[in-house]
Amino acid sequence: MTLAITQPSVTEPFPPCLERQLGAVVSPSGTQFALWAPTACKVTLRLFSHGSEDEPGSRPLVSYPMFREMDGSWVLNFDDNKHGVYYDYLVEFPCGTVNRTADPWATAAGVNGRRSMVVDLARTDPDGWESDQRPATTARDTIVWETHIGDFSNDPHGGFPTEHRGKYLAFTDDNTSVDGLGEHPTGIAYLRALGVTAVQLLPFYDYGSVDESAGPQFNWGYDPVNYNVPEGSYSTNPFDGTVRIRECKKMIQALHKAGIKVIMDVVYNHMFSPDNWFERTVPGYYCRRKANGALANGSACGCDMATERPMFRRFIVESVTYWAREYHIDGFRFDLMGLIDVETMNQVRESLDSLDGGESIIMYGEPWRAAATAVPEGTVLADKEGLSALSNRIGHFCDGTRDAVKGHVFYVKQPGYVNGDAAGHKAKVEQAVNAWRTAPNGGEGVAGQVIQYVSAHDDLTLWDKLCISMTPEGTIGSGIFDAVDERREPMMAAGRIAAGLVLTSAGIPFLLSGEEFARTKYGDEDSYDSGIDINELDWLRSVRLGGLVDYYTALIALRRSDPRWFDAPRRLIDAGGNLVAFVVGEYAVFANPDAEDQQVPLVKVEAIVDAPGAAAWHSVLDSTRYDVARDADTADTADTADTADAVAHAAIDTDADCFVLPAQSFTVWKRA
């Protein structure tokens, strides 16, 4: 539950600055610096030629006193364009304390984000940026593939240029292949072949857990320092504040050229440290505090941000809108959305809608938090209890689907529908495929709000969960994750069923990158800083398990072939036993998690399917036709009733007038 208390820190004893543009703004008339610091008695602007203290000439070039305005901001104007100049502020308070701070509203920074930089953003646009357009795919077409910028290209076998590995620019290499041999695609070419329509990127604003000046390091990046500045470690030169901006735009441009939308993972619920630029500027205002003055920690990261306060709400709305407008971002995933108040989330939605084409920008988040937070009484948070107050065009991750399909996320040995407890989870899976719209508790909203998934960067990968829950030796470190011997087929079959359920359910399907080739992190449930080797995509595995990749590709193609998969009602088939069976239009879908073949009379399907009395049923997807390895048997995925190998694969028994559904199979049939 939300801990609702009156916060003892600064409330609103001064007018918030809701109109003036803050930050360093370049215009034809010059450059304006503006910082909101209403409790300060003096603010000094310092200009530098370099972005850090460790570079030559790190001393200030010049310092200027700033002028206080009635709205609590401090302002200084210059007649010239100061593009490329680095700066910070000295903020003095009546008690005598002086805080050095970078600009919380900065849009560029030096190495490690310690100093801000003035940027004329037009100078950072790559060639052709003015003609870059968001792909025309709608929510109905959206299939999300989540990855980390480093994971995407760190593997030496990925065929990426050495200087691009782990960088924004790896996404601009549009013809990479495993070991550069030209046979098995990687990178952008792989995504085009797979067929996903959106890539969700783990945080790529400037974060604090890696040293940008050092060699390759790894962190997920859920520790923001400068929200409106791209992360420098993903650039080829983190010392020049313009390089990261231009290369980030090139990445987005390349994905758009491939027809793929870019969804940005944003973390406005907490920051790297309570000693952040916001709190240095207005101490006690931006972080939530309990009644005893202690910092609220609903994020489990030490400092919940007070999204309900007018100035931080303004910042969030403008920050998201800035990324959408300046970087052409197509969507936003909100980390721990359950810590952000509903009013702020709805204002973000309204602001995005005001942009040209902004109604197509996707918004969704995690409707939960790690622990209780501290907000003023009456504040409604965007957690599960507050979903009804959110715009119906703000979605949320559905952990109910995740746990019903593969078992509880926090109890690694506990199975779900596909991996050992079909009877205990069948009813929930039947709700899940319909986006929970008929659930007894009122459901999860409209179908477009429901993010359907079974694995993400958090927690065990799908493959690791299946290995641990389905093998007697299922303990971390026991060597069970390699997917190389015959014992792995039960887990592979379970994974195929899980994928089938996600990609045929109503809502927006979401995949962890590499899920389609049984990605493993060797049982690591929280790999946020576990290093490159644990986290990188293993592109050789995509070849070795190419048959599984083909299966996902076929599922994605099926999903994209008909818009009804997005939100048409799922009509359940009374198939009996542990089978989950449903109809969408003229499609019939069957999941059989059991170790034995099952039969379903045609008459049970004919009673509810569209196009009654039409031509014979045809199998358009049969998971049993996809082996782990890629071979000739995967080429023909359409199978009719009288195939010679009907015993091995799904078929129709014309004598018994029934569907024959193989053990541990997922099949889709169409009557046309």
UniProtKB/TrEMBL annotation:
Protein name: Pullulanase
Lineage: Bacteria, Bacillati, Actinomycetota, Actinomycetes, Bifidobacteriales
Species whose genome carries this gene: Bifidobacterium goeldii
Any one GO molecular function term: hydrolase activity, hydrolyzing O-glycosyl compounds
SUPFAM superfamilies: (Trans)glycosidases, E set domains
InterPro entries attached to this UniProt entry: GH (IPR017853), GH13_cat_dom (IPR006047), Glyco_hydro_13_N (IPR004193), Ig-like_fold (IPR013783), Ig_E-set (IPR014756), PulA_typeI (IPR011840)
Pfam families associated with the record: Alpha-amylase (PF00128), CBM_48 (PF02922)
Gene3D superfamilies, alphabetized: Glycosidases, Immunoglobulins
GO BP, one annotated term: carbohydrate metabolic process
Protein family per UniProt: Belongs to the glycosyl hydrolase 13 family.
Glycosyl hydrolase family 13 catalytic domain span: 116-559
